[in-house]
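Page 47, continued from p. 46.
Same chain as before, 310 aa.
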Amino acid sequence: MAPLVTKRPYRLFEIDDQEFTPANIRFLVQELLTAFWTARLPLIQRTSPAYLAASVILHTLSTYPSDPSEPEIMIVDFASGAGGPTPTIERIVNTERRKRGQKEIVFTLSDIKPHIEAWRRASKQTMFLDHISRSVDATNPPQEVTSGQYGERKRVFRLYCLAFHHFDDGMAKKVLESTLETSDGFAIVELVSRQVSSFILMLLYIPTIFVVTIFWYPFSLEMLFYTYVIPIVPFIVVFDGFISALRTRTFGEVLTLVGRRWAVTRSEGTNVAYAKEGWRFEAGEQLHSWPVGYMNWIVGTKGARRGDRD
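Result:
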């Protein structure tokens, strides 16, 4: 693992999260971030980061019993924003499951500030993408997105795509507590970390944005204007990228937030840990952008089989 820039996460602000950021600028920034998730950059990427995230989810789901009598799994994306990469991840996951002869899984978008119109547009593309229209607090979610609801038992798998670093320690602790109490699994996925490589990556994003935007958005005059004439969008993407990296947590830091109540045990020097009630945690990283861009992930499963890496 590359060295960390800081010994602990720092709670600094991201411009795109602020109320003073105009709605149209926020939309453009989120559009570009989604494109970086879902598109493949030639030469430096073998596949898109969304595909890598989908692969992690597919592998994690494969550790659950495949007996048809077992409860169905539903994936709930928390802090979805305008949707981000989740619609793409849903398509990749279910396409692969169909190839394997497995039943499709419904993905549900949710957020404390619902983006209903954006979610409705995305949901029209597939019958396996749903959304919760009302506000969903990840620390205290409504019953329809917790395990054991819908009149018959359902296994809820929580997804946090580029979202968990937005929670301060107090909220993150409550989110994890709620996750362990009301779900059967989760995945935390981040495209950056506090490693030196992530900060080099963000510097490389500066020229990359100016190269790819004209190809990705040739007919969006607004995107082109705020990229090439008044480069507000590139500035926010890169600035917020640095801040996001400083906010992220290591596997050990996340386990610390889980708390003593769950009696977490981890063998020294490993990326696997266990806790009460059959919980198993695992962390890893995968190269998404050569040579320095790594996707970091942490998954937790309850009552699943031991993974291939045990």
